[in-house]
Design a protein that fits this description.
With 350 residues, the protein is an alpha+beta fold. It is built from seven helices and 19 strands. A seven-stranded antiparallel beta sheet has the order 4-3-2-1-7-6-5, with helices on one face. A hairpin with a 2-residue loop joins strand 8 and strand 9. Helix 3 packs across helix 4. It is globular, with a radius of gyration of 21 Å. About 2% of the residues have low confidence. One of its GO terms (molecular function) is phosphatase activator activity. Keywords: Acetylation, Phosphoprotein, Repeat. This is Pleckstrin. InterPro entries: DEP_dom, PH-like_dom_sf, PH_domain, Pleckstrin, PLEK_DEP, WH-like_DNA-bd_sf, WH_DNA-bd_sf. Major protein kinase C substrate of platelets.
């Protein structure tokens, strides 16, 4: 009997031999993880058995890479995966942990909620708390803060986090708030911004989180960026990053010159409405940007050359300047979600 497929999607995987990071199509089964060079490949490039394996998340082994988790097999082989955004990482981690637990107990895989940290009180759910903190009305307000001639966009102070936890009755006092905030930081729900908060994370202090108005933090999918004193041209360039991130994830994109398809990480922002795309294997700067104001986005059933396509879930963005972008989602549901999100951003963003 074939193992049940639990989850699939694009993740960035670190190579075992050359230590390079590449986007892979990853499939989680009941007994292991298969990874493919392309979604359309019939045979996996490799397979990781889950029996006896352990999972570490979040993995802090790579300073410039966030949202990494590690699977260590019984042969002490480490496999590193990187997700595109926090919710995606958490979903993979939950299902992999559950699959490992089911194997150990001789049970069939079935999802059920599990606690992220046994050290926390039973009343604390870090995932739910994170969503409350991000609420646009009642959550922590993201600000543009200036320090040492630098402007930190879409961030907040450590004191603001503790103030919010106390005022919302999430904790009884500031000391308990420090424990919760440190757990949020360790799990990747918060990220340090600026030397003060980064040094606290890298140091040996009892609490890596600082209840300090000069310690800056940000949500990992907030669109945070730091800018120093810059020219007018730089300011104009940065304007397109000021929009709120409303959706992100990996899609296949067709190149304009060679017409080949490559996996790209896409980040959709509104007001101003931009769709930036990145190399998912690394690099903080985008490879390109699509200005969405006044664009048209539709699903397509044929390839860009007009012939009937064997590829599924294609959609096209036509900008106001009549530049065509052809993208491919992994599933019909994902394609529909991207089209709707882009349509909303194109109508409401600048």
């Amino acid at each position: 009997m074939e193992p049940k497929q639990i989850r699939e999607g694009y993740l960035v995987k670190r190579g075992s031999m050359f230590n390079t990071w590449k986007a892979m199509w990853v499939v989680l089964l009941e007994d292991g993880i298969e990874f493919y060079k392309k979604k359309s490949d019939n045979s996996p490039k490799g397979m990781i058995p889950l029996k006896g394996s352990t999972l570490t998340s979040s993995c802090q082994a790579f300073a410039k890479r966030m949202l990494v988790f590690k699977i260590t097999t019984t042969k002490q082989q480490d496999h590193f995966f990187q997700a595109s955004f926090l919710e995606e990482r958490d979903a993979w981690v939950r299902d992999i942990k559950r699959a490992i637990k089911c194997i150990e107990g001789g049970q069939k895989f079935a999802r059920k909620s599990t606690r992220r940290s046994i050290r926390l009180p039973e009343t604390i759910d870090l995932g739910a708390l994170y969503l409350s903190m991000k609420d646009t009305e009642a959550g922590i307000k993201e600000l543009n803060l200036e320090k040492d001639k630098k402007v930190f966009n879409h961030c907040f102070t450590g004191s603001c986090v503790i103030d919010w936890l106390v005022s919302n009755n999430s904790v009884r006092n500031r000391q308990e708030g420090l424990m919760i905030a440190s757990s949020l930081l360790n799990e990747g729900y918060l990220q340090p911004a600026g030397d003060l908060s980064k040094n606290a994370v890298d140091g040996t202090a009892e609490n890596p989180f600082l209840d300090n108005p000069d310690a800056f933090y940000y949500f990992p999918d907030s669109g945070f960026f730091c800018e120093e004193n810059s020219s007018d041209d730089d300011v104009i360039l940065k304007e397109e990053f000021r929009g709120v991130v409303i959706k992100q994830g990996c899609l296949l994109k067709q190149g304009h010159r060679r017409k080949n398809w490559k996996v790209r990480k896409f980040v959709l922002r509104e007001d101003p409405a931009y769709l930036h795309y990145y190399d998912p294997a690394g690099g903080e700067d985008p490879l390109g940007a699509v200005h969405l104001r006044g664009c048209v986005v539709t699903s397509v059933e044929s390839s860009p050359d007009g012939r009937k396509s064997d590829e599924e879930n294609l959609f096209e963005i036509i900008t106001a300047d009549e530049v065509h972008y052809f993208l491919q989602a992994a599933t019909p549901k994902e394609r529909t979600e991207w089209i709707k999100a882009i349509q909303v951003a194109s109508r409401t963003g600048k």
